[in-house]
Every structure is written in C-alpha cells, then in structure tokens.
Amino acid sequence: MARRKKDKWNGIERRAPAMVLIAGDDAGANELLSRVLGSHGYRTVVASSVETATARATEQLPRAAVIDLSGGGIGASLQLLDWFRNHEDPRINRTRVIVVARSSSNRTFSFQSGADDYLQRPFHADDLVAAIDGALSVAHEDMPVRRRRLLDRTSTETPTPS
Fold it and tell me: 29 to each of 10, 15, 145, how far by Cα in Å?
C-alpha cells in the first residue's frame, strides 16, 4: 500500500526494502552481516571506517545503520553515532542506529547519545534482525521513549561475566 503525499509517514518503509549501512572494521563480519540482512529482505551497503561510512550514508541515505567500529575501542562507533545524530539533514539524522560492541560497559552512554539499540558481541543474527525491525517500526517521534525502555530493560538484567 503506497503512501499518499498528504499522509504522514509512520516510519515503515513500503516502497522498497530498507537500505542498511553496515559500518565495521572486520571485512569478514561485514560480509556475513550483509548476507544475513540480505536474506531477510534488506539492501545493504558496507563501510570499513568512519570516513567511508559518512560518505556512503550521504550517498545512499540508509534507513538504518549497524555500527561495529571497535578496532580501537568504541570511540569510532560513538563518533559515527554522533555524526548521524547531529547531521543537519533529517534524512540522515533520523537513521536508526544499532551499536555493536564487545562489552556492555558503554551501553548506557550509547543510548544516551542516541543509539536506537545496542548489541553485545557475540549475538545471534536473529537479534540483529529484530533490532533493525524494531527500530524501523517506530516513528521518529517515538524513538526517545523506545530508547528509554530498552535502556531500562537492559539495566535491570544481570550482567554476564566477561
């Protein structure tokens, strides 16, 4: 069902499969994530650095981004998250961003910085698909409430030993 021009967009992609930017510094993991998401109907574009990711996001205007730039810690992932959230173009700053990291130590800060979900490695492919589906199913105006709920849910879970 196509949306009419005067109808308000509710955040659900209807015309074409959603584009997902995969920004990761592990080429093998990027390829695997691209295949998994492709098998679930998503189109993907891959980047291996913050600079490449910002260029691809500007060109492709993805609906979601999976950020796993953890080669030097989580700093690069948070830098890219900050770029998305502070971009002047709403087609970019409304991109749903899922941060992937080795530990849960930056989970709270990631949500407070505007991450739409946070996955700790290792994770199951179904968890990634569910995170993207969940983020894309919520209207932009309702994302802060969703972030708070996810943060509340994760803060009540008991951490697993590292």
Answer: 32, 28, 31
- Strand 19-24 relative to strand 96-101: parallel, antiparallel, unpaired? unpaired
pTM above 0.85, yes or no: no
Domain enclosing residue 49, as ranges = 19-156
Q: CA 39 to CA 17: how far, in whole Å?
A: 11
- Residue 144 counted as domain residue: yes
Task: Tell me how crowded residue 15 is: count the other CB atoms within 10 A of its CB.
Answer: 7
Tens digit of pLDDT at every position of the chain (162 positions): 454 555 565 555 456 789 999 999 999 999 999 999 999 999 999 999 999 999 999 999 999 999 998 876 788 899 999 999 999 999 999 999 999 988 888 888 888 888 999 999 899 999 999 999 999 988 888 877 888 888 787 665 544 444
43: domain CATH number? 3.40.50.2300
